[in-house]
UniProtKB/TrEMBL annotation:
Protein's name according to its UniProt entry: HLA class II histocompatibility antigen, DM alpha chain
Keywords associated with the record: Disulfide bond, Glycoprotein, Signal
Signal sequence residues: 1-26
Gene Ontology cellular component annotations, sorted alphabetically: MHC class II protein complex
Organism annotation: Macaca mulatta
GO BP of this protein: antigen processing and presentation; immune response
């Protein structure tokens, strides 16, 4: 195995240790909304993650740092965080 492959293998073994990083290092903060000529910047985050724990895979959708939905892979459904979004989640599914 070459030197580059050895480095890659070592980095791959360290991958499970990423959870040790503080949250602020692992995920950059979303920019603060700024008003400009009656327009406001917004952030929509569509986040997919994998982990050793349960659930092993996840998907989350957030708007301006407020979670709207998560996806339940075991049921193959989009689950709203607030009951008001239940009808909309089913329409989008």
């Amino acid at each position: 195995m070459g030197h580059e492959q050895n480095q890659g293998a070592a980095l791959l073994q360290m991958l499970p240790l990423l959870w040790l990083l503080p949250h602020s290092w692992a995920v950059p903060e979303a920019p603060t909304p700024v008003w400009r000529d009656d327009l406001q910047n917004h952030t929509f985050l569509h986040t997919v993650y994998c982990q050793d724990g349960s659930p092993s895979m996840g998907l989350s959708e957030a708007y301006d740092e407020d979670q709207l939905f998560f996806f339940d892979f075991s049921q193959n459904t989009r689950v709203p965080r607030l009951p008001e979004f239940a009808d909309w989640a089913q329409e989008q599914g």
